[in-house]
Write a structure and sequence with these properties.
Blueprint: E1 40-41, E2 45-50, E3 55-59, E4 63-65, E5 69-72, E6 78-82, E7 85-88, H1 93-114, H2 120-133, E8 142-147, E9 150-156, E10 162-164, E11 167-171, H3 174-184, H4 191-208, E12 216-222, E13 225-231
Antiparallel strand pairs: 1-4, 2-3, 2-11, 3-12, 4-5, 6-7, 7-8, 8-9, 9-10, 12-13
Helix pairs in contact: 3-4
Length: 238
């Protein structure tokens, strides 16, 4: 039998429980973030909308230090991770960037081994598994993609839950954005109409949420690929 040494239990027991996480227990505090005031966080508002022709993902452009100071006004919070898929960056910037790099590597590995592109549903399941079991600081991304089954949007919670929907929102401005989306979303939107709705929802969040601001990044995901554009002026895309 292997002599495995894991983390001690929550009461500091000498003999570890086989059910304790191998990475050890999180320290007391905000989900293990002992540097909460100095870690770059996105705060943020991110949106994903499905259409018959593809997916639109929209995010704001602000990063902050501990939610108290704007550290960057031009953060691209949506990245391509799949030939026809993109993921938003929400939560700790470092954790989200590491999460994106890991998923990109897995997508490339899948394609090289099987000679085919990973289905978006499989990628969403993998992302949920990594969010639940990996050493990534609290993240709550949106995955949007297109494959042979159509257009897909998934929200992935920090505990690894994966939920598909026609549209979804994550981040600190989600309540404000949802208020507009509930009124404006309807079946049959074109990609251009979905971009306008998503940009207006981001603008609505930016008006009141201090963690969101400074413009909008829009990603258009179709069977042809992923196109990401940043806009400091909302009027150009609304």
């Amino acid at each position: 039998m292997n002599n495995w040494t894991g983390a001690s239990g929550p009461q500091g027991d000498a003999d570890p429980s086989p059910y304790d996480p191998e990475l050890g227990s999180l320290p007391n505090g905000a989900q293990g973030d002992e540097h909460g005031d100095t870690v770059n966080k996105t705060g943020t508002t991110t949106i994903g909308i499905t259409t018959d022709d593809g997916v639109v993902i929209a995010t704001d452009m602000r990063a902050s230090l501990g939610g108290r100071f704007v550290s960057n006004k031009d953060v691209q919070k949506v990245e391509q991770i799949h030939p026809t898929g993109a993921l938003t960056l929400v939560g700790s910037v470092g954790g989200a960037q590491s999460f994106i790099r890991t998923l990109r590597s897995e997508v490339n590995l899948y394609e090289s081994r099987r000679g085919e592109t990973m289905p978006i549903e499989a990628l969403a399941t993998l992302a949920g598994n990594f969010a639940r079991g990996g050493p990534f600081r609290a993240i709550n991304p949106i995955l949007g993609g297109v494959d042979s089954e159509g257009s897909h949007v998934y929200s992935i919670d920090p505990a690894g839950g994966v939920m598909a929907d026609d549209y979804t929102v994550t981040g600190s401005g989600m309540q404000l954005a949802y208020g507009l989306l509930e009124q404006e979303y309807e079946e049959g939107l074109s990609l251009d109409e979905a971009q306008s709705v998503a940009a207006r929802a981001i603008k609505s969040a930016v008006e009141r949420d201090t963690g969101s601001g400074n413009g909008v990044f829009l990603a258009e995901v179709t069977e042809e690929g992923v196109d990401i554009q940043g806009h400091n002026d909302f009027d150009a895309v609304i």
